[in-house]
Amino acid sequence: MRIPAHSVCTAIRDDIVAGVYERGSRLTEELLARRYGVSRVPVREALRTLEAEGFVVTRRHAGACVAEPTEEEAADLLEMRMLLEPLGAARAAQRRTEAHLKVLRGLVRLGQERARRGHSEDLRSLGGWFHETLAQASGSPALTSMLTQLRHKIAWMYAVEASAHPAESWAEHGGIVDAVARGDSERARSITALHTERAATTHRLRFPGRGDRVERVRTSQHPVNVTGLRH
């Protein structure tokens, strides 16, 4: 069975974000194919996609390498998210479906419950699902794709501190959903803008300077799990 390039791309991207590959390190097709249990063809396609996304660069005499973004580039990502997420929420207020609302409301209930019980370990993943669903509710594949890329790259470049007031954060999520359900684009936009601005203050660069890197967790080699990969 030929494993599709997008599955290989997801696996490599996830490992870059997790710090398995250090910034600036070489990514040879042969070693990647061996690591993920695939041929070099999907690896080559995946590297082209990751280069377009900004995770990989091609260097003369070195080939494909993990990118080394600057602090300015990292700061730009947070600013871009602060501009695009409110736009996505405004679009969601105009285009969301009842299925989107059902999922968003369910996530808010879970998030508020976990926040009350102090289950902070669940809140980050629930927050990610919330914002992913909100982006999908915008009805704009291009905007959804851009926000997904931003989330991946921000997770790569930043460590996120746990919110000191998780209940307030999830109350804001609830306010966004209420505005989206009413079709109030401006209200959805303004609450989301406030929410993303506050969230940005909890982000700390993983790579604050050359030679001053945060220790990253390394995982053992594994083949691509075709059924379990996110798309």
Automatic annotation (TrEMBL):
SUPFAM superfamilies: GntR ligand-binding domain-like (SSF48008), Winged helix' DNA-binding domain (SSF46785)
Sorted UniProt keywords: DNA-binding, Transcription, Transcription regulation
InterPro entries: GntR_C (IPR011711), TF_FadR/GntR_C (IPR008920), Tscrpt_reg_HTH_GntR (IPR000524), WH-like_DNA-bd_sf (IPR036388), WH_DNA-bd_sf (IPR036390)
Pfam families xrefs: FCD, GntR
Domain HTH gntR-type: 2-69
GO MF entries: DNA binding; DNA-binding transcription factor activity
Protein name: GntR family transcriptional regulator
Record organism: Streptomyces montanus
